[in-house]
Amino acid sequence: MQILDGKKAAQAIKDKLKIDVASRAVEGKKVPHLAAILVGSNGASETYVAAKVKACEEVGFKSTLIRLEADISEMKLLDAIHDLNTNPDIDGILVQLPLPKHISDEKVINAIDADKDVDGFHPENVGKLLQGLPTFVPATPHGIMLLLEYYKIETKGKHAVVVGRSNIVGRPMSVLLSSNTNPGNCTVTICHSHTSNIKEFCLQADIIVAALGKPEFITADMVKEGAVIIDVGITRTEDATKKSGYKLKGDVAFDEVAPKCSWITPVPGGVGPMTIAALMKNTYRSCMQKN
């Protein structure tokens, strides 16, 4: 068993970006600028946004964090997005999810300029992804593909099982893994909450991408020897022995599954850092396209 170290791979990506951004700055060219909108004060969202802002500083990007009250009206949030859309200095826009229940995720995502949609959620970018056209790929699936590439994991002709069908991870992940690319060229099966025989599908998998949000759902009896395991899940579970009062668990029961794998991502330190690295790459790409 070997670890797919997301921290190491992400650092390599950020180091390369840092050099490229520094070169642009020396030449007097525009450096990328990412704007993040945080609505309310959800603890996990605060952590994620802080990590994104820190990554911007690390690679030399400009960043703007816009904090809005949890009770802000949907219209005022849409107005804030419009302001960023029309600001020529802003290259990438992300609105941290989840949003308060009175605000439509769909309306917010659709309101972001597709050319600044570095999260890759806008329908225009999703459509391009499905057609195999150049576009912003959602950060987590993009990060996973970059991780597979970094560790030179063979995917061609392999059977990949994606557990979860969200628009953020599961669906785009299935498209990327089945695409005629490297990594890619997998035969892909998508499993979800209504799949009656998930265990049987997982046991056939050379690669499992677990993205369903249920702690330790994938157990050792669901994994064949030598499989590659990508654990997207990250859930806070109560743990009185921890100073924070909680422990982070993935969708895979790591301790029992790891001995059977050829490669596996840890939680934390696997997919999470790669998501942020991919977001940085998307923001850099946006800046390059416009400048």
Summed up:
By secondary structure, this protein is α/β, with parallel strands linked by helices. The protein has helices spanning 6-26, 43-59, 74-85, 105-111, 123-131, 139-150, 170-178, 198-203, 254-257, 271-290, and strands at 2-3, 33-39, 62-68, 92-95, 159-163, 187-191, 207-210, 228-231, 235-238, 246-249, 263-264.
Structural class by secondary-structure content: alpha/beta
Largest sheet: 6 strands, parallel
Oligomer: single chain
- CATH homologous superfamily assignment of the largest domain: NAD(P)-binding Rossmann-like Domain
Number of helices: 10
Mean pLDDT score: 96
Strand residues, percent: 15-25%
In total, the number of strands is: 11
> Separation of termini?
44 Å
Alpha carbon gyration radius: 19 Å
In CATH, what is the class of the largest domain?
A: Alpha Beta
**Spatial order of the strands forming the largest sheet:** 1-11-8-7-5-6
CATH fold name of the largest domain: Rossmann fold
Listing every helix as H and every strand as E from the N terminus to the C terminus, the arrangement reads: EHEHEHEHHHEHEHEEEEHEH
Walk me through what this model shows.
This protein has about 290 residues and is an alpha/beta fold. It contains 10 helices and 11 strands. It folds into 2 domains: about 25-115, 3-Layer(aba) Sandwich (Rossmann fold); about 140-270, NAD(P)-binding Rossmann-like Domain (Rossmann fold, 3-Layer(aba) Sandwich). The chain has helices at about 5-25, 45-60, 75-85, 105-110, 125-130, 140-150, 170-180, 200-205, 255, 270-290; strands spanning about 1-5, 35-40, 60-70, 90-95, 160-165, 185-190, 205-210, 230, 235-240, 245-250, 265. The strands form 3 sheets. A 6-stranded parallel β-sheet has the order 1-11-8-7-5-6. The chain is globular, with a radius of gyration of 19 Å. It starts with a strand and ends with a helix. The relative contact order is 0.16.
